[in-house]
Each structure stands twice: as C-alpha cells, then as structure tokens.
Amino acid sequence: MVKAAVYNTNAEVIGEIELNEDIFGVDVNESIVHEVVVNQLANLRQGTKSTLTRAEVRGGGKKPWRQKGTGRARQGSIRSPQWKGGGIVFAPKPRDFSYTLNKKEKRLALKSALTSRLLQNKLIVISEIKMDNIRTKEMQIMLDKFKVSKALLVLDNGDDKTCKNVILSARNIPGIKTSGINTLNVYDIMKYDNFIVTRQAIEKIQEVYV
C-alpha cells in the first residue's frame, strides 16, 4: 500500500494516509498524459480567428495595367495576395478544434498524473484548512511554510462557508489555483509544481476515480 505524510497548516507532520495503488501507484504513461493535455488545450481554443481571402477583400476589380507592353509582370488585381492590402492565400476561418477521447484514456492519464506527483514528492496532504473569514495573508503564510509558490490546491466540493473562504483567500495569490474534485483535470495537475490536497478531498478522489 502506498502511503503519504499528512501535514497540518504549520507544515508539521501529524500522521500518514494510505493511498490506493490503483490511483497513486500506477505505471506513469507519459504519452497518454501528453495526449490528454493536448486534447484539453484544443478543446479550450475558441477557433474564432478569421481573415479575408482575395475573394473577400474589397476593391481590386480593375486590372492595374494592361497585360503586355509595360515591361512589368502581369497583374490582374491589386487585391491579389502579393499586394499590400491583398487577400490571404490560405486564410484562417472559424472552426471547431475540439475532439473527444475515450473515458479510459482520460482516467489513465489522470491516475498517471497523480502518481507522478507522488513519485516526485510534489504531493502535499493537509489534514484540513479552516478559515472563518477571507484571509489572503493567512493563506500566503501557510504556503510559505510549505515553501510553495506555484501549486494546485484541491478542496472538497462542499458548499460550506469555510471552503468558500479558502477559495477566496487563495484567489488573488499569483501561481495558486483552487480546484474541486469535480473540476480536477490532468492539465492543471501537470501545470503546477505542487499538488496540495486536503485529507477529505483525497479520500473522495479515491472513491470517485478508483
């Protein structure tokens, strides 16, 4: 059984937690992780870029000069691609970049990402984070104790006030992103240097993704 240390908010070890090997002990498949990250980024693309082809640029109906006798190359329109103000040869048009991957690939990539964080000692399990009020300074102090500057903070999906206070306290800290169990994804796990998770959240992860 894989184990990880459990810390309090003062970065002191207060115990350990057993982790499911089917989630945190799999063989890391780098190729499937890369494939899922590319898929996520492609699905985020708006695909709204649009420029004009020579058929869409206004003007250029008149031939610039006669076909022969000028000593210059023949030209049919001042809106041809080689002219300033002309159309674009292969003009990008609005399109949908998204595509789908099967659920098994996504789940394997997520497990590989979580396992890699554990193997790299980038997984930090905190017993609980309690905040009665929104305190960005307190959140920053806690992160400084763990010597963390860029991290994904994963919380339980509870709607209690404490959870909301933690999210709001971390929102304005550069390099810190909060996530719930339902929004956990491979790209965020790999993007941030550290994976900070509460004990309650990691137990739910093991229930959902087993």
Walk me through what this model shows.
The chain has 210 residues and is α/β, with parallel strands linked by helices. It has 2 domains: 2-45 and 98-208, 3-Layer(aba) Sandwich (Ribosomal Protein L4, Chain: A), CATH 3.40.1370.10; 47-96, no CATH class. It contains 7 helices and 6 strands; from the N terminus they run ββαααβαβαβαβα. The chain has helices spanning 21-24, 30-44, 103-119, 136-145, 161-170, 186-191, 199-208; strands at 2-7, 13-19, 123-126, 151-155, 176-180, 194-198. It has a 6-stranded mixed beta sheet, with helices on both faces. Strand 1 (2-7) and strand 2 form a beta hairpin. Helix 2 (30-44) packs across helix 3 and helix 4 packs across helix 5 (161-170). The radius of gyration is 27 Å and the shape is elongated. The relative contact order is 0.18.
Structural domain tally: 2
Helix content: 25-40%
Radius of gyration: 27 Å
Outline type: elongated
The ordered H/E elements are EEHHHEHEHEHEH
Q: Which class of secondary structure composition applies to the elements?
A: alpha/beta
Portion in beta strands? 15-25%
CATH homology-level superfamily of the largest domain: Ribosomal protein L4/L1
For the record, the CATH class of the largest domain is Alpha Beta
Order of strands in the sheet with the most strands? 2-1-3-6-4-5
* CATH topology tier name of the largest domain: Ribosomal Protein L4, Chain: A
